[in-house]
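Incident log, entry 3
Record: GTPase Der (449 residues)
Problem: checksum mismatch between cached and fresh output.
Input:
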Amino acid sequence: MARLPTVAIVGRPNVGKSTLFNRLVGKKLALVDDRPGVTRDRREGDAHLLGLDFRIVDTAGYEDHDAQSLPGRMRLQTEAAVASADVALFLVDARAGVVPLDEEIARWLRGSTTPIVLVANKAEGRAGEQGILESLALGFGDPVQLSAEHGEGVADLFEALLPHLERDETVEDEPEDDDPAAPLKLAIVGRPNAGKSTLVNRILGEDRMITGPEAGITRDSIAIDWEWQGRPVRLIDTAGMRKRAKVQDKLEKLSVADALHAVDFAEVVVLLLDATLGLESQDLRIADRVLEEGRALIIALNKWDVAQDPSSLFNGVKAALGEGLSQVKGVPLITVSAMTGRGIDQLLSAAFETREAWSRRVPTGELNRWFERAIEANPPPAPGGKRIKMRYVTQVKSRPPSFVIFGTRVDQLPASYERYLVNSMRRDLGFGAVPVRLTLRAPKNPFGG
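Fresh output:
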């Protein structure tokens, strides 16, 4: 599959980079706020502009700081994005005019081999005229005058990008989601500072995500396309999720909502725990949310290389999971170290196996044979002396596996018997610990009215 050409958006903080990113991908994927420095990691998406398709990369605001500081590490990510792009959009704020930091960025970009397109954003109305004139001095020619918020000037942007993005290759259609060859959509979730971004970097073999001792560095959910042993993976790093009562800041609320949105679109979710802290109630709440959404779940114990009394810790976490996640028994528990790379192949192998079970569709004959055996081994109760007749079962969908059982008086079936059927399905039909949905339905009584 030929790759799409890549466009990076660069500029100082708060000039509208994420707003333009959202405009081009057609969705509100990047977090947007009035305060500067919201975006920290590179965020990528598929952009469409008047029939032109390309990969767009939103970057952190470029700031001149020490490379070891958080802003400095953010700047390194921006520089890497520009170096790997086919063309970069250099955004300036037409209303604010050119400031010293714009001039500093321009000096850096002039030394880059990547073609640069200057864009004067927030150019609607007459308030931006002076800033547009000032931007000519940056040395990149006439700016594209744009309003990312209102969508003005996109035709001019198309004309500026077209010479850099025209390709002879055709991009093949991606496989359907239920095709085993389709990319595995794998989200990494957990509390702040569990090591999610460090794990993603270790998996990719590069410093793709900004990491550090500060909690809550990641704000957006960042999706990265990658391959493991020749199999495509879409890896999603998410913001840390704290207890709801502790989340007061508007930006953190947006970050947590974005992480939950990423869970909704994942196939397999890895809940990363900090082995030095063990299992906490917030971890169980996150796991419960993942299972409620019908996603396949894997638990990974990170920082295993520095865990104390590992055998006792592993058994304790396993027992707590068995008690706290009673609705799904046997969720895979894997020990990893994002620092050393231990357990990563085992984790990815388990993720593919879990997706296979999550996507499984049971042949009708096999399903009905299981149904007969399950009822024969443990017949349904007869509340009030009236038998509950269970006639047949059908699978209505996969991902997650969902079944409907038809019969008479099934509305009186106790929850314990429903659990028996679901657990029997998991054990006998190869679903393991993935969520299984079961609905009971009685035929309509034609004389009921």
